[in-house]
Protein backbone atom coordinates (compact mmCIF):
# COMPACT_ATOMS: atom_id res chain seq x y z
CA UNK A 1 0.00 0.00 0.00
CA UNK A 2 1.48 3.35 -1.03
CA UNK A 3 -0.49 5.58 1.28
CA UNK A 4 -3.50 5.98 3.46
CA UNK A 5 -6.00 8.82 3.48
CA UNK A 6 -8.19 9.35 6.51
CA UNK A 7 -11.20 11.58 6.82
CA UNK A 8 -13.22 12.91 9.67
CA UNK A 9 -16.69 14.27 9.05
CA UNK A 10 -18.07 16.91 11.33
CA UNK A 11 -21.09 19.13 10.98
CA UNK A 12 -24.75 19.62 11.70
CA UNK A 13 -27.06 16.66 11.25
CA UNK A 14 -30.82 16.57 11.02
CA UNK A 15 -31.20 13.92 13.70
CA UNK A 16 -30.57 13.44 17.39
CA UNK A 17 -30.13 9.68 16.98
CA UNK A 18 -26.45 8.68 16.93
CA UNK A 19 -26.98 5.67 14.66
CA UNK A 20 -28.75 7.78 12.03
CA UNK A 21 -25.94 10.35 12.20
CA UNK A 22 -23.36 7.61 11.61
CA UNK A 23 -25.33 6.28 8.64
CA UNK A 24 -25.43 9.81 7.22
CA UNK A 25 -21.64 10.07 7.59
CA UNK A 26 -21.22 6.77 5.71
CA UNK A 27 -23.41 8.08 2.90
CA UNK A 28 -21.44 11.34 2.78
CA UNK A 29 -18.09 9.51 2.71
CA UNK A 30 -19.19 7.25 -0.14
CA UNK A 31 -20.55 10.15 -2.19
CA UNK A 32 -17.39 12.19 -1.58
CA UNK A 33 -15.16 9.29 -2.60
CA UNK A 34 -17.17 8.77 -5.78
CA UNK A 35 -17.16 12.43 -6.81
CA UNK A 36 -13.39 12.64 -6.41
CA UNK A 37 -13.03 10.05 -9.20
CA UNK A 38 -10.06 8.38 -7.58
CA UNK A 39 -8.81 5.47 -9.63
CA UNK A 40 -7.32 2.94 -7.28
CA UNK A 41 -6.78 -0.78 -7.10
CA UNK A 42 -7.48 -0.73 -3.38
CA UNK A 43 -10.78 -0.72 -1.55
CA UNK A 44 -12.36 2.14 0.34
CA UNK A 45 -12.43 1.11 4.01
CA UNK A 46 -15.07 2.69 6.23
CA UNK A 47 -14.61 2.15 9.97
CA UNK A 48 -17.81 2.28 11.99
CA UNK A 49 -18.14 2.79 15.73
CA UNK A 50 -21.51 1.11 16.19
CA UNK A 51 -22.05 -2.64 15.89
CA UNK A 52 -25.67 -1.96 14.95
CA UNK A 53 -24.77 0.41 12.10
CA UNK A 54 -22.03 -1.98 10.95
CA UNK A 55 -24.63 -4.78 10.81
CA UNK A 56 -27.01 -2.56 8.84
CA UNK A 57 -24.30 -1.72 6.30
CA UNK A 58 -23.21 -5.30 5.65
CA UNK A 59 -26.56 -7.12 5.94
CA UNK A 60 -29.66 -5.66 4.27
CA UNK A 61 -31.97 -8.01 6.20
CA UNK A 62 -31.09 -6.33 9.51
CA UNK A 63 -31.90 -2.79 8.36
CA UNK A 64 -34.67 -0.75 9.90
CA UNK A 65 -37.29 0.89 7.73
CA UNK A 66 -36.70 4.47 8.93
CA UNK A 67 -33.28 5.15 7.33
CA UNK A 68 -34.19 3.11 4.24
CA UNK A 69 -33.78 6.04 1.82
CA UNK A 70 -30.24 6.61 3.07
CA UNK A 71 -29.43 2.91 2.65
CA UNK A 72 -30.70 2.89 -0.93
CA UNK A 73 -28.31 5.76 -1.69
CA UNK A 74 -25.47 3.88 0.03
CA UNK A 75 -26.22 0.75 -2.00
CA UNK A 76 -26.20 2.73 -5.27
CA UNK A 77 -22.82 4.26 -4.47
CA UNK A 78 -21.42 0.85 -3.44
CA UNK A 79 -22.53 -0.58 -6.79
CA UNK A 80 -20.85 2.26 -8.69
CA UNK A 81 -17.57 1.96 -6.81
CA UNK A 82 -17.61 -1.76 -6.17
CA UNK A 83 -14.77 -1.83 -3.67
CA UNK A 84 -16.17 -0.70 -0.34
CA UNK A 85 -15.22 -2.55 2.85
CA UNK A 86 -16.90 -1.86 6.18
CA UNK A 87 -15.03 -2.57 9.40
CA UNK A 88 -15.93 -2.25 13.04
CA UNK A 89 -13.84 0.09 15.19
CA UNK A 90 -12.01 -1.20 18.22
CA UNK A 91 -14.31 -1.31 21.24
CA UNK A 92 -12.20 1.43 22.83
CA UNK A 93 -12.90 3.82 19.95
CA UNK A 94 -11.74 4.38 16.44
CA UNK A 95 -8.24 5.38 15.38
CA UNK A 96 -9.24 8.84 14.17
CA UNK A 97 -10.84 9.79 17.49
CA UNK A 98 -7.76 8.60 19.35
CA UNK A 99 -5.44 10.54 17.03
CA UNK A 100 -7.44 13.73 17.48
CA UNK A 101 -7.49 13.33 21.25
CA UNK A 102 -3.73 12.86 21.32
CA UNK A 103 -3.06 16.10 19.46
CA UNK A 104 -5.58 18.04 21.52
CA UNK A 105 -8.31 18.67 18.95
CA UNK A 106 -11.71 19.06 20.58
Structure commentary:
This is RNase H type-1 domain-containing protein. There is one protein chain. This protein has one domain. It is 46% helix and 9% strand. It is built from 4 helices and 2 strands. A two-stranded parallel sheet has the order 1-2. Helix 1 packs parallel to helix 3. The protein is globular.
Helical amount among residues, as a percent range? 40-55%
Q: Enumerate the strands of the largest sheet in spatial order, edge to edge or round the barrel.
A: 1-2
Number of helices: 4
- Report the order of strands and helices: HEHHEH
Largest sheet: 2 strands, parallel
State the end-to-end distance. Answer: 30 Å
Sheet/helix structural class: mainly alpha
- Identify low-pLDDT runs: none
In round numbers, the mean pLDDT is: 69
Count up the domains: 1
The count of DSSP E runs of length 2 or more, i.e. the number of strands, is 2
Shape: globular
Strand percentage, roughly? 5-15%
Protein name: RNase H type-1 domain-containing protein
Organism: Gossypium stocksii
